[in-house]
Amino acid sequence: MASHGARGRSGGRPTLEEVAARAGVGRGTVSRVINGSPRVSDATRAAVEAAVAELGYVPNTAARALAANRTDAIALVVPEPETRFFTEPYFSDILRGVGAELADTEMQLLLIFAGSDRERQRLAQYLAAHRVDGVLLVSVHADDPLPDLLSQLEIPAVISGPRSAAETLPSVDSDNYGGGRSAVEHLLARGRTRIAHITGRLDVYGAQRRVDGYRDALRDAGYEADEGLVEPGDFTEEGGHRAMVALLSRDPSLDAVFAGSDVMAAGARQALREAGRRIPEDVALVGYDDSAIARHMDPPLSSVRQPIEEMGRRMLDLLLTEIADRRPAASRGLEPRQVVLATDLVGRASS
Amino acid sequence: MASHGARGRSGGRPTLEEVAARAGVGRGTVSRVINGSPRVSDATRAAVEAAVAELGYVPNTAARALAANRTDAIALVVPEPETRFFTEPYFSDILRGVGAELADTEMQLLLIFAGSDRERQRLAQYLAAHRVDGVLLVSVHADDPLPDLLSQLEIPAVISGPRSAAETLPSVDSDNYGGGRSAVEHLLARGRTRIAHITGRLDVYGAQRRVDGYRDALRDAGYEADEGLVEPGDFTEEGGHRAMVALLSRDPSLDAVFAGSDVMAAGARQALREAGRRIPEDVALVGYDDSAIARHMDPPLSSVRQPIEEMGRRMLDLLLTEIADRRPAASRGLEPRQVVLATDLVGRASS
DNA sequence: AGGTACCGTGGGAGCGCTCCCATAGGTGAT
DNA sequence: ATCACCTATGGGAGCGCTCCCACGGTACCT
Predict the structure, then answer these.
(1) Percent above pLDDT 70 for chain A
(2) Transmembrane region positions (chains A, B) (predicted)?
(3) How far is the CA of A33 from the C1' of C7 (A)?
(4) Is A170 a residue whose pLDDT tops 90?
(5) N or C terminus: which one in chain A shows less Cβ crowding within 10 Å?
(6) What is the pLDDT of residues B135-160, one digit of tens each?
(7) Which of A98, A131, A148, A308 is the best residue to mutate to test the B interface, defined by the most B CB atoms within 10 Å of its own CB?
(8) Is residue B130 part of a domain?
């Protein structure tokens, strides 16, 4: 407590050069030790490490960034208002996954919101200044210009869900198609036949894929597609409510609903209640995400679980690889990697 | 869209030097323009700004940090597990306030969690490397070593609540004492006389102050302090429940409860229900924070509101001043600034 | 013995800025 | 006209690191 050891001898913090002098070696050698190069003899390494410890040496990040042209930082960009970030468990789960994986690294994570135009402006500036080595982009809409900006700036990036089937950026996603299928198959297995679907925002590719899975599962089971049973939602509770009301008035005989998210399922549940339908007796309900909402709903909601935390982990993995691969010149765009993780359906009382 | 202008002429991004050449001036002059120095003629400034625009110049942060010995970044440190951060609206409100105030700045905000030992280790390393110009520390406990570490490293810092009456670090807090008083006065005005208090964690100074306010308000109204009516909680729902049970068994005649947080009030409400007490007929209930919980409780909860978002804003203000003041040598420790913001009681059906 | 190969190492040359000193010119007072 | 003084400007000297080339030494080959 009373002594700060050998620190601050000459006023400031120790530099590489001082460590070198102390260890009786050259600057280059200390640099090699610090960076874990194998081309250093054990004896030298030990001497340097001792000097580092004695002086309490910590490398100066700015100098390193300047000399090596890298920042050892990556950004998690959330192109949404902060509110959604705090409201939807999706984001915190991703963050948790990324954070867990990052702990093994020397990298620093920046959290950047880009919901408003102004924030996007700042972000563009920030990226142009190359202040991060890579970017994780979550919740991307079809017409978002951010991905293009990133590839233009040649900043490695990974997105949480492809924007289309022709996505070129590396991405990590869960199997939305399979998730959609499994929801429907689950309901069919429970004897339901008139299964409606409340979709998510259709400018989100994943939401489209859930619809595809829904349609194919029904068709494979021999049911003709009935477009009257598909109603677009927007991932909000109100949207779910609205969609449910529309569905009920259009086809009062429906006996099941697959909602594209738990939040929308909550809205749908409310609408079903108001219409006097019992869950699951009259109408079975299945959501998507398996969030806290699903567990706490009355009745508890069956839901398609995505391994969100793992998605975060995998996104970081991909990004780090991407950053490492940036060395051999001009291999841009070759074999982009798309990871798809399996979903599984968690059955509860609502179906 | 199709052209990226003059960018990338010589492979990389433009440098100060290139801008200077383009504008026909020296490096120093460009630097002055970039940094808003007044000692530049209007004509020269215009020429430089034109060159900057044409080349799409963006200063290299690393170089600037190295040369100027500052990072233009500050950290918001949350010495708690991430879960609390996402669960409690307090943190997101602070973040929102800080973010809003920061938007006018060139500064970058880093969000750092230091809940686990490992994370704290990393944080210490990070701070030792002086990678931020200042730190905002929220939710500090009495025995937290972080504040001392910060002053040892001579890193400007502001904390969200003083650790004690003798706090030396600049801090921003709401008037916990006044908040506690107002809750009690509100209940007294409603004709309640046997007012219990469920406290927060007493190693949080603010929680203590609420207790002080509670005691003084009762005493000023002529009621003798009855220590049987004070029960420690821990800011959790379970803690609130437990405390309420204890209070009821100790003194069944109580007719009001002031809980040190809305979350604890929720726990208390549950316990009151289980004991068959009606709210507010039998027992009036007042919480603290005026969070979403308060509005959604059944019945809606009266609560002491703190201007959390403004606290965030003020914290940033203080920190920026602190950073700016760091220039004139050795004025350390002189007139630390402590800001205290007023609370106000939001009356609802629970009291 | 001479040659070739590699290994561990030292240190120069920057990375792109900011800081600050020096300089040139302009202004007003003497 | 002279001097003192101020303002706008140029550019050298670093900030602390990484990269890379060059060096001496050792080991192994022919």
Answers:
(1) 94
(2) none
(3) 16
(4) yes
(5) N
(6) 999 988 888 899 999 998 999 999 99
(7) A131
(8) yes
A contacts of B59 (beta carbons < 8 Å)? 129
Residue B324 pLDDT: 87
Nucleotides of D under 7 A from a protein CB: 7-21
Nearest-Å Rg of the Cα atoms of chain B is 26
Q: Answer yes or no: do B62 and A56 touch at CB < 8 A.
A: no
Least confidently predicted of A32-46, A68-82, B326-340 = B326-340
Domain count, chain A: 3
Select from A289, A296, A287 the least CA-distant residue to A187: A287
Helix locations, chain B, DSSP H: 16-23, 27-34, 42-55, 61-68, 82-87, 89-102, 117-128, 146-152, 176-189, 205-220, 237-250, 262-274, 292-296, 308-324
DSSP state of A132: -
Domain boundary (B30, B59, B88) is at B59
Tell me if B92 and A82 make a contact (CB, 8 A cut-off).
Answer: yes
| Number of Cβ atoms within 10 Å of the Cβ of A210 | 30
**What is the extent of the structural domain holding A96?**
73-173+310-341
The answer as to whether B142 is a domain residue is yes
Read out DSSP for B177-231?
HHHHHHHHHHHHHTT--SEEEEE--TTSHHHHHHHHHHHHHHHHTTPPP-GGGEE
Residue type, B116: S
Q: Within this chain, do residues B78 and B197 fall inside the same structural domain, yes or no?
A: no
Q: Which candidate from A66, A92, A119 shows the least CB-CB separation from B86? A: A92
The answer on pLDDT for B2 being more than 60 is no
Least confidently predicted of A45-59, A114-128, A183-197: A114-128
Å: A224 CA to D7 C1': 84
Q: If you ran DSSP here, which 8-state letter would residue B80 be given?
A: S
A128: chain B residues, CB-CB within 8 Å: 13, 56, 58
Judge whether B65 lies within some domain: no
**How does residue B41 score in pLDDT terms, banded at 50, 70 and 90?**
very high
- Domain of A149, CATH number, reads 3.40.50.2300
* CA–CA min distance A214, chain B (Å): 33
One domain for residues B264 and B182: yes
CA B41 to C1' C28, whole Å: 21
pLDDT digits (tens, 9 = 90+) for A60-87: 999 999 999 999 999 999 998 888 888 7
pLDDT of residue B349: 95
Give the nearest partner residue to B58 out of A58, A89, A128, using CB atoms.
Answer: A128
Instruction: Tell me, yes or no, whether B166 and B229 share the same domain.
Output: no
Q: Is residue B2 part of a domain?
A: no
Q: Which positions in chain B touch A66 (Cβ < 8 Å)?
A: 60, 62-63, 66
Contact A103 B118 (CB under 8 A): yes
pLDDT for the residue numbered A25: 95
CATH code of A52's domain? 1.10.260.40
Q: Which two tokens stand for residue A125?
A: 């500036």
